[in-house]
Amino acid sequence: MSTSLSTASPNPDNSNNTDIRPLMSCFPSGVSVVTALDADSVPRGMTCSSLASVALDPATLVVCLRTAGPTLRAALDTGRFAVNLLDERARDVSDLFASGTADRFERAEWRLPLGAGGPHLTGAAVAVADCEIAHTVEIGDHTAVFGRVTGVTLADGGEPLLYGRRRYARWSVATSPLAEMSVPLEGDTRVGTRL
């Protein structure tokens, strides 16, 4: 199997604003909605696939939020936020929180448990991490928010929603036995199979 890589053409204005979206679309990830309450207890939230585990001790996550967005402002105002990892059946919730729709919390089921960092998207999340902000770093149009995890809530059952190549996928389909039956990669040897 041969793979041909093409190089993105340089920006005609010679700026450093290279579009990395095509690159990142080749890196599938889970889908989350980051939520927080603002200073007036109004719920805020946005779909976010820029999420990573930073440390196990103390348990710390990093999310990258739009600097000019109300979700970041709410998290900074209260020092807390929640990361809702979406269930594979919650594509509509991902789309809702990625839109500019003002009434998103009126159109999604949520609750605020005692001690929560932000709203928990009931029924849409396979897991939720409640976090306290430990550190922030503003880079360009986004801010990296490091959150110390204060609690984790797991849903009963459910599988994660995936996103890559500007498409959604279900974990249960991607990891099914049929998905694993594929053409061997160049150099792979299959034991006990006939060609």
Q: What is the helix/strand order?
A: HEEEEEHEHEEEEHH
Strand order within the widest beta sheet: 3-2-6-7-8-5-4
Rg over alpha carbons? 19 Å
Structural class: alpha+beta
Mean model confidence by pLDDT: 82
> What kind of assembly state do the chains in view correspond to?
single chain
Low-confidence stretches at least 5 residues in length (pLDDT < 50)?
Answer: 1-7, 183-195
Number of helices: 5
Main sheet: strands, sense, barrel: 7 strands, antiparallel
Helix content: 10-25%
Description of the molecule:
- With 195 residues, the protein is an alpha+beta fold.
- It has five helices and ten strands; from the N terminus they run αβββββαβαββββαα.
- A hairpin with a 2-residue loop joins β7 and β8.
Q: Topology of this protein?
A:
Layout: H1 21-25, E1 29-30, E2 32-37, E3 43-48, E4 51-56, E5 59-66, H2 70-78, E6 80-86, H3 91-98, E7 125-139, E8 142-154, E9 161-164, E10 167-170, H4 171-174, H5 177-180
Antiparallel strand pairs: 1-9, 2-3, 2-6, 4-5, 5-8, 6-7, 7-8, 9-10
